[in-house]
């Protein structure tokens, strides 16, 4: 089934007074499956995955706050605990637990933390490069004093406050930028992601849907030992997926996998950070075997 043969329906839910969007691929009597996208992305990036799984699963894919067709945070603040709350609210309000989750990058970080907080609600978890910063980067950040980290964050916020959304004269120009971002994408993939990833401005130009403030990393977050406690609290089978051509640190080599009770690490050749796009067939073969296990 192609990603666009029969699309999903759009829905709204509320979290911390924000109007958040998700798509539902139908089949409500089937087991629930959540697909959570990464930073500066949108829920329709999962269309190929959803199309292949929708006959056996009740597939739901949310837009994170500040992304896609979800509302932007009024104060321009995008904390990980707020993202986790949004996910918890969607699962709670739609009665999805126990749920299976497939998540990418930032979405993986959110889903992993949620799974450590509410382990009884998650049956299986697939996270594509979702553990956040590598241990090396964490150590480098730790060398900075708290005031230095917060000063850097404030400077970044001020810079983003003066940064206007980029405007593209046409869909074709935005499409070319999407292709530049990921050389593995086929033209059809890049066009699909672009069409669902932009809004048309009043002057006829096009801009990406995400809020520029989502580019900013946190000025302050959980300590790494607290994050590791959440990893250790996950009780469901977990699959951590990495692309061989990605710059992300592999948890089977850097020691992070040891904090999980039941985690398997899989690395796919010929894939960068967007493994589910770069090696779709191999990714789906891996995931379907894991979900069937």
Summarize the SSE layout with pairings.
Elements: E1 9-15, E2 18-24, E3 32-36, H1 47-53, E4 58-62, H2 80-93, E5 99-104, H3 106-117, E6 122-128, H4 135-142, H5 146-161, H6 171-181, H7 187-197, E7 198-200, E8 206-208, H8 224-233, E9 238-243, H9 251-254, E10 263-268, H10 275-278, H11 280-292
Parallel strand pairs: 3-4, 3-5, 5-6, 6-9, 9-10
Antiparallel strand pairs: 1-2, 2-4, 7-8
**SSE order:** EEEHEHEHEHHHHEEHEHEHH
Strands, total number: 10
Share of helical residues: 25-40%
Cα-to-Cα separation, first versus last residue = 24 Å
The CATH H-level superfamily is: Alpha/Beta hydrolase fold, catalytic domain
What is the CATH topology descriptor? Rossmann fold
Assembly state of the chains shown:
single chain
What is the annotated CATH architecture? 3-Layer(aba) Sandwich
Largest sheet: 8 strands, mixed
Low-confidence regions = none
Q: Into how many domains do the coordinates divide?
A: 1
Structure, briefly:
With 293 residues, the protein is an alpha/beta fold. It contains eleven helices and ten strands. It has one domain (9-164, 211-292): Rossmann fold.
């Amino acid at each position: 089934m192609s990603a666009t043969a029969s699309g999903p329906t759009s829905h709204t839910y509320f979290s911390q007074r924000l109007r958040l969007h998700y798509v539902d691929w139908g089949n409500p009597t089937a087991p629930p499956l959540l697909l959570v996208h990464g930073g500066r992305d949108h829920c329709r990036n999962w269309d190929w995955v959803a199309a292949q799984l929708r006959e056996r699963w009740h597939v739901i894919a949310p837009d994170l706050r500040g992304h896609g067709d979800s509302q932007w945070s009024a104060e321009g603040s995008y904390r990980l605990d707020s993202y986790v709350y949004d996910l918890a609210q969607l699962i709670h309000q739609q009665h999805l637990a126990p749920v299976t989750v497939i998540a990418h990058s930032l979405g993986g970080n959110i889903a992993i933390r949620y799974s450590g907080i509410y382990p009884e609600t998650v049956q299986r978890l697939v996270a594509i490069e979702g553990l956040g910063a590598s241990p090396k980067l964490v150590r480098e950040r730790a060398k900075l004093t708290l005031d230095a980290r917060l000063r850097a964050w404030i400077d970044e916020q001020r810079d983003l406050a003066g940064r206007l959304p980029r405007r593209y004269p046409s869909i074709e120009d935005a499409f070319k930028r999407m292709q530049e971002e990921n050389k593995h994408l086929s033209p059809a993939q890049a066009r699909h992601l672009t069409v669902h990833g932009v809004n048309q401005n009043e002057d006829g130009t096009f801009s990406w849907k995400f809020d520029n403030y989502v580019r900013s990393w946190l000025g302050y977050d959980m300590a790494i030992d607290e994050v590791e406690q959440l990893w250790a609290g996950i009780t469901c089978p977990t699959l951590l997926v990495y692309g061989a051509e990605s710059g992300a640190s592999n948890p089977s080599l850097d020691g992070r996998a040891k904090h999980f009770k039941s985690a398997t690490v899989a690395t796919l050749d010929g894939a960068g950070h967007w493994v589910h796009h770069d090696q779709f067939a191999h990714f789906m073969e891996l995931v379907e075997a894991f979900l069937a296990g």
